[in-house]
Amino acid sequence: MAAVWRIESGRLIAGLARLVRDVPLAEDLAQDALVAALEQWPRDGVPEAPGAWLMTVAKRRAIDTLRRRDAYAGKLALFTRDAESPATEEPDLDDHIGDDLLRLIFTAAHPVLSAEAQAALILRMLCGLSTPEIARAYLIPEATAAQRIVRAKRTLADAGVRFEMPTPAETGERLAAVLRIVYLIFNEGYAATGGDDWTRPELCREAMRLGRVLAGLLPAEAEVHGLVALMELQASRLPARTGPDGEPVLLPDQDRGRWDRALIRHGLAALAVAERHGGGPYTLQAAIAACHARAVRAEETDWPRIAALYEVLAHLQPTPVVLLNRAVAVGFAGDPDRGLRLADDLAEVGALRAYPQLPAVRAELLARVGRPGDARAEFLRAAELTRNAGERALFTRRADEISAPGGS
């Protein structure tokens, strides 16, 4: 049931939002359909097409809801016709996007919402994350995450924001927020915040599809191509990121023969387009990913170039996570002492105190400077902080490897 919801909830809410033109109402209807599934599926079994089943139930609830609203009488007639005969729906000639999920993202990217509220809403609606998972993803208290979601819905309702197409000019104004949201969806697929699976490939595929749609809509936007390149180059590693039993495999230990060469070719081509148009932070991150993609073996990775690219990226986008990745790059480029100092400086950043990757990075660098005992302690601390079962097993295994004779 949880797996079905995570896979189907985004498309379900987006499709309902197109029909009722009201994002908070669409999510409520989707939740009602989920409750119905929880009541019926254990008794009757999971239907062959669970997404279609949920949509049918949600549409019926929508009709009942709209019937109770006299002000929606005209809309009800149109909606009922659509619900009963979806094949007869006529295309919207003013729809220059033509994709329900992308329309929902552009709606969530409305300027009445802060960047934090936009992200929380999308993680909830499109990725199916729980409030605790969103809190961990953003390194904030659960109460804060819950408030962001509630306030975002209220703000959209109070401002009268409907599930409507932005004009071409508004599309450009919201582009930065849209790209941020699409990459957020990809990252949740690439490294799941919680649960038993380390990755959620269906989210990665959906984010890449959305990125390619955007590239077709906005062919001259460098950062759109940069984001597509970044996602495709990172996604090329997905087949090698887990072992035979689903256990996580770190980048240096991956079988690069399993990397998706077609995605690498597409990613490098998109990177070339982005660089021709100028590019920015996404293009820089794609260039970093390209350094890994071009290395046939892990020891051939051009870490000095990666460290130099991170220096530029840290200047443009000095977020705690970027700064932490810079510390890794510096350490792997031949200066683990400086890398460790950079990581230690981030230990005082409040947002990273509960972030498991910080002690994991410190552990790798401590091992490189010859402090295995401290490295093991940091890996165990990272294992305590993570809420992803696969990642916990990975950190515990690394701690055991360092404890073993000859471990490093």
Describe this structure in words.
The protein has 20 helices and no strands. α1 crosses α3, α10 (175-190) packs parallel to α12 and α12 (222-235) runs antiparallel to α13. 41% of the residues are buried. It has helices spanning 2-20, 23-44, 50-67, 73-84, 100-108, 115-125, 131-137, 142-158, 168-173, 175-190, 201-217, 222-235, 261-276, 281-294, 303-316, 320-332, 336-346, 357-368, 372-385, 389-403. Mean pLDDT is 84; it is low at 85-96. By secondary structure, the protein is mostly helical.
Write the layout of secondary structure elements.
Elements (H helix, E strand, L loop, with lengths): L1 H19 L2 H22 L5 H18 L5 H12 L15 H9 L6 H11 L5 H7 L4 H17 L9 H6 L1 H16 L10 H17 L4 H14 L25 H16 L4 H14 L8 H14 L3 H13 L3 H11 L10 H12 L3 H14 L3 H15 L5
Helix pairs in contact: 1-2, 1-3, 1-5, 2-3, 3-4, 6-8, 6-10, 7-8, 10-11, 10-12, 11-12, 12-13, 12-14, 13-14, 14-15, 15-16, 16-17, 16-18, 17-18, 18-19, 19-20
Number of helices: 20
Given the helix and strand composition, which structural class is it? mainly alpha
| Distance N to C terminus | 42 Å
Shape: globular
**What radius of gyration results from the CA coordinates?**
23 Å
> Largest sheet, described in full?
none
Helix content: 55-70%
Number of strands: 0
Low-pLDDT residue spans: 85-96
Secondary-structure element order, as H and E? HHHHHHHHHHHHHHHHHHHH
